[in-house]
Amino acid sequence: MILSESDFLHYGSRLIRIESPVSEKFLENKTAKQDIFEIIPFLPSNFVDLLFLDPPYNLDKNFNAVSFKALDSSQYLNWLDSWLLPLLRVLKRSASVYICGDWRSASAIQTFAERHLKIRNRITWEREKGRGAQKNWKNCSEDIWFCTVSNDYYFDPDSVKLKRRVVAPYKKDGVPKDWEEDESGGGFRLTSPSNLWTDLTVPFWAMPENTFHPTQKPEKLLAKIILASSRPNDFVFDPFLGSGTCSVVAKKLGRRFFGVELDHSFACLAEKRIEAADADKSIQGYSDGIFWDRNARPSRIKAHPHLNR
Ligand SMILES: C[S@@+](CC[C@H](N)C(=O)[O-])C[C@H]1O[C@@H](n2cnc3c(N)ncnc32)[C@H](O)[C@@H]1O
User: What does pTM read for this prediction?
Assistant: First the structure.
């Protein structure tokens, strides 16, 4: 997806700015083009059910309006403290918080979460794109820390089951044991969601969800988090919205949402994707209430080889 000049005008006019205290209703289904640091004091308290955090990682990265410079771990922790501590006020007592990071950001994220939240798990996902290195292992994974505010939280594992191909389909008396036969004759099993996600594809040029944002997350990744950790109509907040993935998926899944993005072109892009979600609610790799393993859906792969990788 790209932006034309008229898109900038059209979607730019929908972006909001927050300069005084606002209500939950005011924020509902909107995108603020602003620095999260400016907004925090004006947000209401106790309104967020799910906070998704995908801030700049602890590495040198240019995001158009913002350039992030790698810090040492204690400085990155200070940076997290500077916005995430005051932001905790927006969370309901039953809220969940997911924090994304790479291995360099991990110790600061863990320290923050141990001090101020309850850590439930750390998800590792395989990020297939990655540069090879001559004197190191290629970076091919990222983490997402799953935390909650209290012990009273919502989690629905049944909504995020994964349909995997059975490697050795065993039959007892001619009947499949713990697996199903697909229309193509293949064997599949519904498996419980684990903290190791190898079924994601980082958006690339041939995928409809692909944009020009440099670190766009897959919609499928957000779908897992939103389905497992929020109910329909719950409030999902992403203060580093980027290309809008979190709000787009929240909308597709019937949740209310609010996002903040500092860069104007990314914020316009997010609005364009949010509007497109009215007409197309599909999420690559998720259909009929089931997540499909990468390369696991034969009929779709034949029809759309680029969609279901
Ligand atoms: C890792 S990216 C998020 C990508 C996003 N999850 C997606 O799927 O497109 C982080 C985003 O935070 C934005 N950002 C950085 N500092 C910010 C700030 N102080 N306030 C608001 N947004 C900020 C950057 O412009 C960037 O788009």
Answer: 0.92
Judging by beta carbons within 10 Å of its beta carbon (0-12, 13-18, 19+), is residue 49 exposed, middle or buried? buried
Residue ranges of domains in the chain, CATH in brackets:
5-153+200-284 (3.40.50.150), 157-193+287-309 (no CATH)
Measure CA 149 to chain center: 19
67 vs 63: CA distance, rounded Å: 6
pLDDT value for 307? 41
pLDDT for res 295: 59
Mutate to test the pocket of ligand 1, among 36, 63, 274 (most ligand atoms within 8 A of CB): 63
- CA dist 162 and 158 (Å) reads 9
Q: What confidence score (pLDDT) does residue 296 get?
A: 60
Q: State the Cα–Cα distance between residues 218 and 283, nearest whole angstrom.
A: 9
pLDDT < 70 stretches in the chain? 130, 184-185, 295-309
pLDDT digits (tens, 9 = 90+) for 191-219: 889 999 999 988 888 888 889 888 999 99
Mutate to test the pocket of ligand 1, among 262, 265, 266 (most ligand atoms within 8 A of CB): 262
What pLDDT score was predicted for residue 187? 82
Three-class DSSP category at 263: coil
Tokens, residue 255: 């949740």
In terms of DSSP H, where are the helices of the chain? 5-12, 24-27, 36-39, 73-87, 103-116, 219-229, 245-252, 264-279, 298-303
Which of 28, 86, 36 has its CA nearest to residue 63?
36
Atom of ligand 1 nearest to the CA of 100: 1
| Planar angle of CA 100, 106, 112, nearest 5 degrees | 85
